Task: inverse folding
């Protein structure tokens, strides 16, 4: 039987805390950029202008159909050589995660936009609203109802995927704990508590995703 | 003195979807203040006709004049060119339209639906828009429903809000596309009542309907359409009781059987 010793954990509480802060920083930045990018790409995909919709479709395909791990490594190691753009590990992870998830966000926005009844848009057109007014005041508020649960779910995914940043040496949760284990040789305790910390971070988000469905079902 | 410029004037309007000819050269005039009902079997192009006049379909041939102004086009050396922006909007806003499916915005209250365009398009202050909205809701008999979301209203109430929303923009012309077809029978009259009131106030109305009673009592003229053409038109008396064309007669007898 393994002899658990959780006392060591307390000594490393600051490592967990700092790692969690970095994990949250990466995730929040990535959510912000992924939602913003995803909104534009999703709208472009819906455009009837091929000049917009075609590149947008390719964008989505490229970032969804290659592994995030490869994207992180590629942006960190290849981008500097090919284009002379050097990002430190933290920002390379943020950029890769943002681009990757923006493709998923774009699909959520696109699905939300097409779900809006064409008749509601016709009514707005006749009353003289222009394209941007219709998008902002009629389409997006209605689409939100459908989009919010999957968007929040994506945030939970981002929190999980941010652990991949460890491969390029970002001291987020996983990498910080790996580092400690090399000194204290208590992987079972350290990893178990690590899983718990992730759960504590992610559970409220997943919970919020489910609550948001209920909230919108109750309003109008 | 009767006005010489028609409210709506269609000259040889043609519309196709892909290879399907939906409107095959429509010529139609509606005088100012006139109420014209359009009858015709399903698929004959009635909705498409109204959608062209509302400029929801912009890809048609021919010309549509609203109070003498060419809709969505400008003439350059004998060539018709599309126009957009303010030049389009000025003419397009002469028209209000009400749909079979109401098309109220579900995330806005009854009042919210009405004031939206007043604020965004007419740039009105919110309280001014609200005053107009409340007035219009009173006019359609829904004063106490200001703050309700559409999902909390009956079909008849929703349709009356939709009429109020269209009227808020002060259109000169109102288009109605089978506005009572989606309603439970007992809710039809409250909507027809509002439309009749509007007709009595002198609104120019083009009404696609299957309500023959409304057509005979309220319309100044009835147009019968089939397969993208106007088959015949005339007074309600003439068209509903004694039409010239066989197709019209067939349609009317079919209607009589279907309904009751
Ligand atoms: N957006 C569209 N795309 C393709 N076909 C259409 C479209 N809208 C209408 N149609 C076709 O045009 C014809 C006339 O339709 P519509 O104007 O709705 O007739 P009505 O209102 O008299 O029933 C129908 O055959 C219909 O299938
Ligand atoms: Mg129709």
Result:
């Amino acid at each position: 039987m393994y002899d658990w010793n959780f006392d060591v954990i307390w000594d490393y509480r600051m490592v967990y805390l700092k790692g969690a802060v970095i994990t949250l920083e990466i995730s929040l930045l990535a959510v912000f950029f992924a939602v913003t990018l995803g909104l534009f790409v999703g709208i472009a995909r819906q455009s009837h202008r091929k000049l917009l919709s075609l590149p947008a479709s390719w964008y989505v395909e490229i970032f969804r159909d290659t592994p995030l791990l490869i994207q992180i490594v590629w942006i960190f190691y290849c981008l500097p050589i090919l284009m002379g753009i050097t990002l430190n590990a933290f920002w390379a992870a943020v950029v890769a995660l943002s681009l990757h998830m923006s493709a998923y966000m774009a699909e959520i926005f696109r699905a939300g936009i097409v779900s809006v009844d064409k008749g509601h848009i016709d009514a707005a057109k006749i009353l003289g609203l222009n394209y941007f007014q219709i998008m902002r005041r009629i389409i997006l508020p209605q689409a939100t109802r459908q989009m919010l649960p999957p968007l929040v779910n994506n945030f939970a995914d981002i929190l999980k995927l941010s652990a991949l940043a460890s491969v390029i040496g970002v001291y987020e949760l996983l990498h910080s704990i790996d580092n400690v284990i090399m000194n204290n040789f208590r992987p079972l305790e350290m990893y178990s508590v690590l899983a718990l910390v992730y759960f504590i971070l992610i559970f409220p988000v997943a919970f919020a995703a489910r609550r948001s469905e209920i909230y919108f079902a109750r309003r109008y | 003195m009767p006005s010489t410029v028609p409210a709506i004037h269609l000259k040889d309007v043609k519309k196709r979807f892909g290879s399907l000819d939906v409107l095959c050269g429509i010529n139609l005039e509606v005088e100012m203040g006139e109420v014209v009902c359009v009858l015709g079997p399903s698929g004959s192009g009635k909705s498409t006709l109204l959608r062209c006049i509302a400029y929801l379909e912009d890809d048609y041939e021919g010309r549509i004049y609203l109070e003498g102004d060419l809709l969505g086009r400008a003439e350059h050396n004998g060539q018709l060119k599309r126009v957009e922006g303010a030049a389009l909007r000025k003419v397009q806003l002469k028209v209000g339209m009400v749909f079979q499916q109401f098309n109220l915005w579900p995330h806005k209250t009854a009042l919210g639906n009405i004031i939206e365009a007043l604020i965004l398009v007419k740039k009105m202050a919110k309280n001014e828009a609200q005053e107009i909205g409340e007035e219009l809701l009173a006019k359609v008999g829904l004063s106490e429903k200001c703050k309700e979301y559409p999902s909390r209203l009956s079909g008849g109430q929703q349709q009356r809000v939709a009429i109020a929303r269209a009227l808020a923009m002060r259109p000169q012309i109102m288009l109605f596309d089978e506005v009572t077809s989606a309603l439970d029978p007992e809710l039809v009259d409250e909507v027809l009542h509002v439309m009749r009131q509007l007709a009595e106030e002198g609104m120019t109305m083009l009404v696609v309907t299957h309500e023959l009673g409304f057509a005979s009592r309220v319309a100044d003229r009835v147009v019968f359409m089939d397969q993208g053409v106007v088959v015949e038109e005339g007074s309600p008396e003439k068209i509903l009781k004694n039409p010239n064309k066989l197709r019209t007669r067939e349609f009317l007898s079919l209607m009589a059987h279907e309904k009751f």
